[in-house]
Ribonuclease PH
Amino acid sequence: MRPSGRAFNELRSVSFETGVAKHAEGSCLVRFGDTHVLCTASWDETTPPWLRGGGRGWVTAEYGMLPRSTGDRMRREAKKGQSGRTQEIQRLIGRSLRAVVDLKALGERQILIDCDVLQADGGTRTASITGAWIAMNQACKWATGQGIIKSSPIIDRVAAISCGLVAGAPALDLDYDEDSTAQADANFVITGNGGLVEIQATAEGDPFTDDQFAALLSLAKEGCTTLSAQQAELAAA
């Protein structure tokens, strides 16, 4: 039995609340259990200097944790500087979203994603990716409604989930208690069509086997299928 009482293939309670940021073109408050992340998408009619004149756009992301998103207050990174972890996560979010956007169809524009962790209990990067897609989709709907673009440049959905070996058993969607004691943990980014965008997997103790990795991948696909269906339902609303 998992500490939470969930089945090994069971997600935490997941919810998406859209339109929560008045001034953003797209926004979503995503909750994976006690992990809560505010994701916003801002439309920008410029591109990074190194892309100008190339006829394509860009999607980039920033990520941060609020000082009391964890048990002890952390210093704001605006004061101490970004950690390597923060830089790695925001690059992951950007890569994940660009994988499902036709950058040429976006034109010489960019979508700026901001993911702010309000409360952390494991899986903040995967929740950020999943919620950021919803915010990005809203921003593209806004742009088409305004006549800025003829159609959305989004070509697929993308979601992410964590998995790990907990007490030797493969488990889906780890909370902090599980993640901090797992024998192995992994993050999977998967498109709506089942394509793999990125896999981050690490053994925390003994190396894991091919069969164990296959079990984690199977769980991740199952979880992302569920999340993608929820994204599709929101996109159609």
The chain has a mean pLDDT of 96. Strands lie at 14-18, 26-32, 35-44, 58-65, 110-119, 158-166, 169-172, 184-191, 196-203. The first strand starts at residue 14 and ends at 18.
